[in-house]
Fold each of these.
Amino acid sequence: MNITGLLNDQVAAGGNRAAIIDNSRGTTRTFTFAQMESAAARVAAQLHASGLRPGDGVILLQPVSAELYIIFTAILRSGLVAMFIDPSAGKEQIDLCCAIHPPKAFIGCARAHLLRFISPALRRVPMKFSTDLPVFGAALLSGGSAKGRSQIEDCSADSPAVIRFTSGSTGRPKAAVRTHGFLLAQQRVLERSLRLIAGEIDLVTMPMFVLSNLAAGVTSLIPRAKLNAPGTIDPAPVFRQILAHRPQRIGASPAFLERLVDYCSRELRTVDCFEKIFTGGAPVFPHLLDKIHAAAPGADIVAVYGSTEAEPISLLSRRDILSADRNAMASGLGLLAGFPDEAIRVRILRDNGGMPIGGLTNEAFQSACSPPNEPGQVVVSGPHVQPRCLDSQADQETQLRVAGTLWHQTGDAGYFDAQGRLWLLGRCCARIRDVRGTVYPFQVECIAHQDPGVRRAALLTHENRRVLAIESKKVIDAQAMKSKLAWASIDAVKVLPRLPVDKRHNSKIDYTALQSIFRRRRLNDRV
């Protein structure tokens, strides 16, 4: 079992088809499926000749490019474990990641090797490889002869394939483990739910999905853009690349797509090549779906709800949103997320005060689940739900077992309607509960987004007061907004030039950082 076997299948089906069209370096470079497989085999041979063996961890720090995926697939086909860390996390976090799962090798571009100056843990890694320029203390990963080691390693379903480190709730990095069995199960789900069709061209903005494209025979178009900062991309060159290559599909964060469609609006341009547009990784409000439709009127626009541990959970096409649904979202019922994917089981767990839940019987679990229209925490189970973290404490915080079956606690609040559709209410920890009752973030934020001047909105408490923070460059009638939200007992509406967002997708509100902003400045009581 090894997902890179699917890449070999694509070579057999037509190895001269384009696998990756890479514009990341300013010029267009095209790599066929046969070239990708051959290059990965050569790199795998060099790694094996260096002494690396199945199960060894390899930190990979390489810009998004064809080379990244050649090395990534070489690691997977060798049975090694690809480790992804955040280079901007700082010395302490990098050293903690290396302590959680000590790597045997560090592979990166010359610039990435500068991290060795600040990180003792990286300096202690036994093997180091540079992918472009000669670097002191590192071998050049040239991908020489593949003789003697071109086969794909047969791995068990529970063999780790990828470890991705994310920031944990306690400040300690969380090591999310994806096994070979998980990757193959997720691939089957993504091929169906995202409708991956061999031969299509996909404008790639979320790097992890290139692996799925390679396995499905989809051509990945890598744009020249800062994919690590999607909310700040220059949309003009991206638009030109769309015109040049005419991709039929794109999957992107809301922040990336908003930059692109705002450009189209300013320039009075539309995109006629897109047939499928998927967006997720953050809340997708109806006004953004409408803006995307204006820029790409012929595309099926789908909002995808998922998490690092389970992708996807549910999908919602703009075409399926009825006027009654829009009215419901505009009246405080939350954000519609659509029907759960058929491969996943989703339940709503009654509030348990935020405490971890141990093993449950089926009967106890069913009793703990909420009926339709009653909010609680979204919990999921299925073959493409991440099986475990390396940190047992992190597992205890997010997982529960029901008669031996693993369920993941997403930390998101939501409910099912009478039709079986999932509605989201925001993070459980962001819920406000006081003497005036309970209100969830998305109940208020969906209404705020009805104002075309609102770019982002966030509900929070400050000094025991309910505050709606709004990001806008236009004049917002704060008093009118407050009156509209009288049912939610909003004490103040504060308009800011910018609300802090997550680093990965630049789309989710960073509530912790927002709280810090309010602590540093006194809230204007007259607003």
Amino acid sequence: MVGIVVGFLLVVVGVILFWRPRPKPATSGANRILRLAGFFAGRAGGLVMTLIGIFLLASSSFVFVDANGVGHLKRIYAFNELPPGRIVALDGEKGKQAQILGPGFHFIPFVGVLYDYEEFDVVAVPEGFYGQLIALDGVAMPTGMFIAPEIPDDKVSNMLNADVFLTNGGTRGPQASVLKPGQYRLNRYLWDVRVDKNTRATVIPKGHVAVVKSNVATPGVDCKEEHVSASDAKLEGALTVPLVPRGCVGIWKTAILPGAEYFNRRAYEVTIVDTRVQTWEYKGGFTKRIIDLSVDQQGNIRQTERSEVERIPNTAADRAVFVKIEGWDIPLELRALVQVTPQNAPVVIGSVGGLAEIEDRILTPAIRSIVRNVAGSTIQVPKKNAEGVIILPIEYITRPTKVLDLIENREALEQTIEALIKVEGLKAGVDIKEIRLGEPSIPPELLVSRLRVQLADQLARAYERETAAQSKRVETEQARATANEQPRLVKAQIAVKVAKQREEERAALGSAERQYLEELARGQLAQANVLGQDRVAMLQGLEKILNALERRPELVALVGKLVPNTVVGGDGIGLAGAAAIFGSAGKIPLGSKPQ
């Protein structure tokens, strides 16, 4: 302000000095020169003062805005005052102005006199965040509203213009519309922008959807409420929730698919729902008794009892289900595969608040009740013969459930339980994919007899296999010994065959000899009948002598020496000659030599 006054005075004085009248000529030459010099010096000084004054006045009539800044004006002097309740001026009233200045040089007459100048940084919204807007001026918020309705994206840029916002009925207070990532030149007298950890973008990961409960309505949207049932199933007791189209106040009927959304957390409540298949386990929470069987060296079966505490895992939905069968309380573990589809997600959120609440309040009690009812009542099983084989064609019978059905007919129980639980899941908007029963903790007293029989059977089979193995080993050893003795056995077999052949040969010779002797005897008998027995005996003796001489020819010479020179005469019939010879030989004294 002082600069402006000084500048104005300098301009006035300078103009006066520059335009003052020219002095009258002096009488003497020296005075004339001095007067002219003073005149021109005054003009020059006036010109300089005028220029300085103009510069001082001009310096208060322009501003320069930085490239990353936004210029703001606050008027000090004006004839009009702002209306009551307004803080931003539209028509040059005193106070904060709606007009903002962009980067560069701006000439505004006497801007330094009439206005206070401020410069703010450009508003920057980083990636992954949104800017929360609060309007500091505008029309009052209607009764019942706590946040201004959202403005479509294509109109947000105009809304950010202070003149447009204030002249078109912009609402003062928090805005449902947000600033998405980027840079914005805003009138900071009108807009308060907040970017912090609470203004992060809503990221919906894969396998999930977002269910939105809106507290504001978008102008121009037909907000007709519709009562929707879970899974569109017209089942008695199915959950029904009032839903609205997107852009209306209430729970939106359509879930938001995976991606990034910039929902204003003041205006919208966003719930992320996992639509992947999940596993609910019901296990632990009981003490398991076990009877162990063992076999000593003598083959005797011994049994010992022990117990184990089955704790509830941290990941389990709940403890195991206790069922009562044939008077026994049996802990039964099971696993359920469940899924919430995107279509049912709004119903689940609107009815009970989320999948965890569905699990705790609806499905877990239903699962426990159904499992107890099914396991403790009757079961439908195929007919079997005395050996336990299913009779064909298959026929089913219904009978009371037995404890061992938890092992032998588990599939039938699973199918019955699964069919009933699926209905309850549909009512709650949850798709039950399957139910699988775990290993039941059956009292060991019911199993020990069966185990002993199985163990005895295994021992018997083991004994049979060992016996067979021993027999095989003996056969192997015998084969090995036989192979080692094979040469001797071959010789022995050959000797046996030779002996047998000799025996057969001797038998044949004996038989032939016997036949010969028999024939000979018959011939001798016939001869004896003709010649008489004496002569026959003599002939046989002679025949033997002749045979001996035939086999041993060297005896002939000896016989020649023994036979005397005797001439025997006769008729040539009979044995007279031979008798004469033997008779003569018989007369030779012992020890004498024949002549």
Amino acid sequence: MSASVHLSRAGKRLAFLSLLAIVLWLPYLPFVPYSVVGNVNVAAEYALVAVSLVVLVGWVGQISLGHAALVGVGAYITGLAMGGLHVGFPVSLLWGAAGGMVVAVVLGAVALRVRGLYLAVATLIFGWVGQEFLFRQAWFTRHSSVTAAPVGKWDTIFYWNWPDRKVFYYAAWATVALAVYLMANLRDSKTGRAFFAVRGSEAAAASVGIDVVRTKLAAFAVSGLLAGAAGTLILVGQQAVTPEAFSVDKSLFFLAVAVVGGLSSLGGAVAASLLFAFINEAFFRVRALEGWLTVVPAVLLAAALLLYRGGLARLPDDVAPWLRSARRRLDPVLEPVVVGFNRVADGLAAWLRAHANRLRGRLPTGERSAAVVVKRAGPVTTLLSRLTGGLVRAPRPVVRTEPPLDLVPPGVAEEQGPGASITALPVGRLAADTGSVTGVLPFDKMPRQPVVMAADRDERRVVLGVESLTAGFGGLVANDALSLTVCDGEVVGLIGPNGSGKTTLLNAVTGFVPVTAGRIELFGQDVTDLPPHHRAQLGLGRTFQRVRLFGQLSLFDNLLVATHQHNPTGILSHLAVTPGSLAAEAEARRQVQRVVRLLDLRDVAHTPVRDLPLAVQRIVELGRALVTGAKLVLLDEPASGLDATETARLVELIRYVRSLGVAVLVVEHDVKMVSDVSDYLYVLERGRLLAEGPAFLVAMDEAVIAAYLGRTAGAGA
């Protein structure tokens, strides 16, 4: 068996250009029937709707069963613009997209009052209202039949006759390509991570400063814009639409396309759209299959849900091993073909480089090194650079020297002033590589600054003040007139038997449980009525009793989500990948990289968090709170599920966090653990404050012993 053969670099470039040429000239290839061009155009329409569903359902988790109505809104508004206002295509795309976006935002503002199944029902009702009422109003649908006027001058290269399927092919797929490009930019940005965070856990997303409602509305807006643009393509491509084209059944069909492609995958959405277009063509060609077309989407949807979760987007990873094995067996046959193709490609590349050198030789001596320098690097720039021998090139990358590792939450050193005890802390390489996910995390060996606090607790700055707090849910009072304080630089423990109201207190402080009476102050500001994300923006971080990480994201991206409130860029800059958004992204990644190094998680930084052990997940959750720059962190039973060794490491990590100037409030069942780490201790029983004071004194309190052990301090065992 011969060694595996591969395409050369020039061969890969030539193969890519050949494929690109086929895509560009597909409508005019002699062996492509006219009906195929029509179905490929329909695939573009499906793809745009599927991409809109990927954003809304796959990325944010907001189920839409009435999406076809948004497509219909875009189609009919396009008809009004083209037929009533004489707006030409493709400008009318903007009208359809804007109409879909506005209606989607209105729908979202109403539907987001409910969640889960009720949200799906709300969108289903919207789809039914569109089909049975809105799309049957004469004032709205009177221009349901339009013909796009040609653009340009006859017999010139700039003449575009849109009613021609072959010409419309370019408009439809250019729109899809632009949409996929913009959505890919969005997915890998601050906004995209916020989308995935909201899907993973709304509470955790709010705890790092993400406005959940605003994020959902943004997703509805983007999804509606794409759906409205798809409606424009449908109307222009088919030249006439009816209400039945946007029925509830059609909404389910569109959802099936997105699911079959892979509900979170942009490429899968496009692939599934082409698959359904191919099925349409096959049923058109084979008369024996007539009548079964409506069954196919249901069968494919069931297969994707029951047998092949992940859809077509999962296919490359599953097929890759089989392809490698098949290629090894076919190497003796393919080798002459590949070698010949490489020779042709290398010869063509050499000719292009020689032509570029001749062009340089004609330049004046001082300008022979001249080149066209584009704004930033990318795959297209790389391709052009290689094909032109360097006449087109990207700017040389700037090599940055990583600054000393100083994990000081943003604003801490500045606020404390020049006399602060906590300053930038260059800790260098903090932990040796262990080669194991659960290896030793030597937090006890990390250099720490001594925390200087006033001897009298009353003289310390209060970062959290809870006064006469009463909170509960469902008529049950979980906290009854509770008062406690956490001061700057302290670790405060909160203990109590099960059902004593500890987690409810943390939820009330962070804004997840409404307060019936009392007052909550953060850093001197009354936050009793503020939503959770506003409290997080003030400098409040937390972990949860049950770990709440964002399962679709890697460890690194989970920490990147926590930079949300410190990233000033917006959704438009993320779509366009502006220099400002790139700079903010680079700074966020540098900050997260420092935390990853601090916690010695580099070996698993790009591992999905759902695949990590519980002990590591709890460390990641605490790290996420640190990345936010929180000056007060609430830990809700952080040692739950950990063994003695892991708990000891957690204690050292909490002490290290305290040494960075971060106040900590720990809720825990493990009395020994919380006593060891705390400067001050509160004890709750049945929603009321039972005892408070230094940890060593509270541990000897008879009422506390009775609450935990059911006996007094002097009683026998």
Amino acid sequence: MSNEGYSVIGKRQPLIDGVVKASGAAKYAADLALPGMLMAKTLGSPYPHAKILHVDAGAALALKGVKAVVTGADIPGKKYGFFRSRRDETGLTVKARYIGDPVAAVAAVDEEAALEALDLIKVDYEPLPAVYDPEEAMKEGAPLVHDEYERNIVAFRGFDFGDVEAGFKGSDHIREDRFFSQGISHGNSEPRACLAQYDPSGKLTIWTSTQSPHYVRRDLSLVLNIPESKIHVIKPFVGCGFGGKVELYAHEVAASLLSMKTGRPVKICLTREEEISATRLRVPMGVYVKTGVKKDGSIMAQYVRCLADGGAYASSSALPMYNSGLTCMIPYRIPNFKYDGYMVYTNKSVSGPMRGHGANQPRFAIESQLDMIAEDLNLDAADVRLKNATQAGDTSISGLVFNSCELSKAIKESTKHAGWHEKRGQKGTNRGIGLACGGFVCGARIGGHTASGSFIQVNDDGGVTVLTGSSDLGQGSRTVLAQVAAEELGLSASDITVLSGDTETTPIDPGTFSSRVTFYAGNATLIAARDVKAQLAQVAAEIMEANVEDIVFRDKKVFVKGSPDHFVPFAELVNRAKSLGRGRLIIGKGEWAPTNTQFPDRKTRYGNVSGAYSFACQVAEVEVDPDTGQVTVVKITIGDDCGQVINLLAAEGQAEGSAAMGIGHALLEDIIFGDNGQVMNPSYLEYKIPTSKDIHDIALLEVGRPDPVGPYGAKEIGEGLLISTVPAIMNAIYDAVGVRITELPVRPEKILEALEKKERRNTP
């Protein structure tokens, strides 16, 4: 990573909205209010699978303060969903498919009246047979969650590259292992909320906590039968998303319907219990891995089978099943690879996108197995990774093109910094060290509209406004875009105002997911800034009697190359440019999507799906108490290749957040389902997430080089770091106490049980 020559890029830049957030002045969806606003709540099904025969809302409507009740029968439009081919939701349903599935909603003058009214709504249900296990759901004769999907298989993705059987035959050593990754909650600091207002002209405006305002508008148009041009979606400040706020949700449909019915603004705020049990979860997934290697650890062939519990609705279904296979082929050279991935409906809470989006589960399995193989062959686990690591210039067997890759350097630097060789295999200390690698896309090529856009307007005082369709969820993307514009125009980030996430004032953008914002929106902003710069440079060249290509923008000054003492202040140049001729506006436009990608072939799945790929190696150090089974993560060292870092402070924050989330996934978090599919721990009293006391030393080593496609050479850092945290911790636990846990999370009782079994095996 090099910052040479940059004035803004690569520096530690505080968030441009940090003061507003820290002071409490930032307004989130739950903070918003309009005159005459009603409060609403939704009623969830008590059954995991049931037809709704009749809803009697008479008593609820008679309650003082209640203004309206809506049900699934009031839905005027069609089903919606992430993919056109798998639209299976209506927001309020006429057939419940999991406990908590919303069947009605009520609007009242306050939330207390709305809650009281819910108890008065009488619903006649016809319970239906239910299924809770994906293996059982795939069997012939199992109850169908959605009648149109045979054996409840909502999505299948398969790859078959090279000759896997020949690869296994040519291997010196083969392992087959099974692993399981649990369902977990996103743990957003802000539970979802929205405020909808339908006006007499037929215009619906909705303020909502979302990652994708344009997706919300699209799906609201479908389900409410309102033209998209008549729907205005505004994203206020958002308190985290991690993938879970990409889609349209039932509360947004309900608030909109109730506003249409009452003619008044309607707000819904979800409780933490609703947030956990009735929105989206990370996909629970069983993973089978078979890997063949040579004696030196070179991978010859690999077969991966993933079985995912999709819950009651499709959500993004096909995408995580594709990613689960795709990302297996990023960090290592695998000459022969086969993959089968199934997403299966069950009568449980819905699984959906979450940071890593299908990459985490197989990565945990593969990286754990690579350590097992290294031990089988008496090889160093780090050397096995180095032997197989992807290199810059490689093209994977599936068509992924790696123009930049510093994974080998990441492995070497992180193991050196962590003291790998000194600490590995220290018997009797109850301390262990483990590593894992991973790679991720910088915005996968999706069907249809995939580009990002930016508009830049220069104000009279020299301030700059950037309008972007991308959404900042707290990760700091507005600051990154401000830095990109500031670097190009010779300003500071504080001179830049970034407006985002409004379907009527900002460019159309698919949303914030797949780690695409810095890569896509960053390039779009860079193009727009260069457009502005070219307009101003032309004027400056005339004023200074110089060539356009010799004009320099830096430190709020504009001057001729080599003569920084003879300058025009940026603001003065703007005013002189605007006053020329009839008077003009200084506006730049940028639209960008990578030209080096291709949508994967629908039959073979071959194709380069991303403009670039990030890489990382993580080394985890743990201490295990053999008496209690308690695991403490002492330190995590991250060797990260995210190309050129735009904001070092934000990059460090992303690394620390990823490590914290990975610790939760590995050791603490677990959605517990009852026998009837009900979530049994839908609050932070029972569902444990890491706190600051669980997070210790985290070291981030930036080892990347500028990527030829990314803005200023930047690549993603938001998701790629997370996927190797869990297996690094699991491998460190094994190094500490010699027991291998293959089902997440690693609760203390699992450690103790495994230690007891180990002791019995070793006792004569």
